[in-house]
Design a protein that fits this description.
By secondary structure, the protein is of the alpha+beta class. The chain is 13% helix and 32% strand.
Amino acid sequence: MKNGDVLEGYHLAQNAKAVIVAPNVYDRTVGLVSVVPRDDIEHAGISQELIAAKALGSEIPTSLIGRGAAEAHLTAGSREGREAVLAYLAALRVDPGWRYPPRTPWATAEDLMTRFDEFDDSVHPFVADSPRTSLNDLLVDPQLYVARTVLTTGRVLRATSDEPTQQLILGADVTDSEAFCNVTIADGARRFRAGDRVEVRAVVTAWGTWISRPGEDVKELALTCSAGRLVGSRVPRAHAPERRRRGTVG
């Protein structure tokens, strides 16, 4: 795309004005068709690879587009986790806030399906078992970090107050770029607030252009996070002594 995005999916049709694509997650279509004006396209290519595909949530043995995918090797438990991951990725990809459906690599889906229990919406302990990576680097070139767990730190630009899961919008030093992820907070734990510096254990999941408000787009990186922890808080100078009581229960 001329704005730097990459839109992937199954080619359905085209004419002189537009290309029509069915976006996918892994080997599933997601019930969405994107009509992309040719004026927005920098380059378009069609793979000659024959890829199996069917509608998300369908258990029919034949595909919607392409050949049917064999899943006889999947157990009931693994099938449930697989479908949960694909439904999660589909909901992310069809969110109307994106300028176009974001790039969601196959490798990401495969990675999350093998580690579903690590990244579900349960409360998980923060485990520093992965390399620390600058959020700036993730924002600039997310493709380099696909299917890898990373620890990254950002400042909270906005945070929802929903319980028990918070959505965090994280910023760094890259202009007009931000990341977001959901973190489930334990009962009674301090909730994250705007201005906090938070470290998250995350997997790069999707990226594209987000319509921040009419006429204003930002480059958006979607992270799937297992846990997050506070590493610093912006406190007004007059209240600096309060830092000594951080983490206590009063």
